[in-house]
Write a structure and sequence with these properties.
It is a multi-pass membrane protein. Keywords: Cell membrane, Membrane, Transmembrane, Transmembrane helix, Transport. It is found in: Cell membrane. InterPro entries: EmrB-like, MFS, MFS_dom, MFS_trans_sf. This protein is mainly α. It folds into three domains: 198 residues, Growth Hormone, Chain: A (Up-down Bundle); 55 residues; 198 residues, MFS general substrate transporter like domains (Growth Hormone, Chain: A, Up-down Bundle). 81% of the residues lie in helices and 0% in strands. It contains 16 helices and no strands. Helix 12 packs parallel to helix 14. 49% of the residues are buried.
Length: 473
């Protein structure tokens, strides 16, 4: 295997660009479907509820496969695993483009989720491995820019493609990009991650699937069925039981499937806690902002997109800058700045009323997205920097999995709060009641944002010469 120190700068750059190209293509596909969904529903002659499974089923499959990536990265040579994930995703895209009915379309989306889940975790671990620590913040910042900017432009591009061509063309175009990445990877990729012969723990994998899948499905069902329902409580209970059994098994195992002992490292645990809070607020507000513009203000979907676009661009722009700041001064100042931005943004949305100008929502959304740009990738970098290198794959897989579940929770809970408050309002009706519910949701987000700010002010202690902390056996 080629060690990172033996890689030339040219080889590192080619691997980096290939990873960015792949992640941009797959990240675009994850959001492009929201625009194309009405056309797919009409073409396949299915209901909107059934069609939503093309996105919720995708998220569920991602949540299940992500914990598996730690084992795969430690067991399968880097190049072989990367190429295999690309092929799986590419097959899914081709099948989606040709899908004559919903079952084939759904199966194809699951294949895409499997490939994407592996590739997202791999990209972060590979970058953390092949670049020196004094450059990793900037590199992860540029990586963050790619995965932040792609979802912003994807819905617009998808709409243009559907209008000019058809929804099948989306998968053909993205598939062509992935195919180019695959051919290029054959020539530039190297085996940069250490591997060892490890026995596959099937029971642990099944328990992790039950845990992360149960929580994702349970919270995903919240908007459709309500909290006090079997599809929600049943799935959450199954996820909770699975989580208890999974944790017990990993803590007792000599060679864990997913090494949870990384959480014994304070810095890593704080990075996970911060990432969870960030994703709770990020995904919740990302869902509420379009509802505010369209359902409460009565504006068009185009206006809604224009309202959130400046913030998304600011987030993408700040990501590489935040990476360089992290390299120079550490994570604490970024957490304080990001936490403050979130608090100000959410408290501002709490005070918004029906006559507030739409420009205020644009400004507050820019503040929210600035926090994302400041913290999304630096948390990943900082957390993994403080665990032993051989556990980086486990640390990345665990953080990514928990972040995915946190996003599902944020989306479901904050929309649920808005609807519950609006429904139980006795003095307000219609848009006014919905706005009141949204205000309360953003007030709760302010509390979560305050916890993030508190973490930066009082719990995180930066050190320019951070030492790897050994995880207790």
């Amino acid at each position: 295997m080629n060690q990172p120190s033996n890689l030339t700068n040219r080889k590192r750059t080619f691997i980096f660009i290939n990873l960015i190209l792949t992640c941009i293509a797959l990240t675009m596909l994850s959001t492009a479907l929201t625009t194309a969904l009405p056309a797919i529903v009409a073409d396949l002659q299915i209901s909107v509820t059934t069609g939503q499974w093309l996105t919720s089923g995708y998220s569920l499959a991602m949540a299940i496969v992500m914990p598996l990536t730690a084992f795969l990265m430690n067991r399968v040579p880097t190049k072989k695993l990367y190429l295999s994930a690309l092929v799986i995703a590419l097959i899914g895209m081709v099948l989606c483009a040709l899908a004559p009915n919903f079952p084939i379309m759904m199966m194809s989306r699951i294949l895409q989720a499997i490939g994407n889940g592996i590739l997202i975790s791999m990209a972060q671990v590979i970058l953390l491995t092949i670049y020196p620590m004094d450059r990793i913040g900037a590199i992860m910042g540029w990586y963050g820019l790619s995965i932040t900017a792609a979802p912003v432009i994807a819905p617009t591009l998808a709409g243009m493609i559907v209008d000019k061509l058809n929804w099948h063309a989306i998968f053909y175009i993205v598939g062509a990009i992935v195919f180019v990445s695959l051919i290029w990877a054959l020539n530039v990729f190297e085996d940069v991650l250490d591997v060892a012969k490890k026995k596959f723990d099937l029971l642990s994998f099944l328990l992790s699937a039950v845990t992360f899948g149960g929580f994702t499905l349970g919270f995903g069902n919240l908007g459709t069925y309500g909290f006090a329902s079997l599809p929600v409580l049943g799935a959450l209970l199954v996820g909770l039981i699975g989580g208890i059994l999974f944790t017990h098994r990993q803590m007792k195992a000599a060679v864990p499937f997913l090494d949870l002992r990384v959480l014994k490292t304070k810095e890593y645990a704080l990075s996970v806690f911060g990432s969870i809070l960030l994703y709770l607020v990020l995904m919740g507000s990302s869902m509420l902002m379009p509802l505010y513009v369209q359902s409460i203000l009565g504006k068009s979907a185009t206006i809604s997109g224009l309202v959130v676009l400046p913030g998304s661009l600011v987030s993408a722009f700040l990501s590489p800058i935040a990476g360089r700041i992290y390299d120079k001064v550490g994570i604490r100042i970024l957490t304080i700045i990001g936490g403050s931005s979130l608090v100000l943004s959410n408290i501002g949305m709490f005070f918004i009323h029906i006559h507030t100008g739409i420009w205020m929502a644009v400004c507050l959304n820019i503040l929210r997205c600035a926090a994302t740009g400041c913290l999304l990738m630096p948390f990943v970098t900082w957390g993994n920097k403080n665990i032993p290198p051989e556990l980086t794959a486990h640390g990345t897989a665990l953080l990514t999995s928990l972040r995915t579940v946190a996003g599902a929770i944020g989306t479901a809970v904050f929309v649920g709060i808005m609807n519950t408050v609006a429904r139980n309002s006795h003095t307000l009706t219609g848009s006014a009641a919905l706005l009141h519910g949204m205000n309360v949701s953003f007030l709760v987000m302010t509390v979560a944002s305050g916890l993030l700010l508190f973490t930066g002010l009082f719990l995180i202690k930066d050190s320019r010469t951070e030492v790897l902390i050994e995880v207790e056996n």
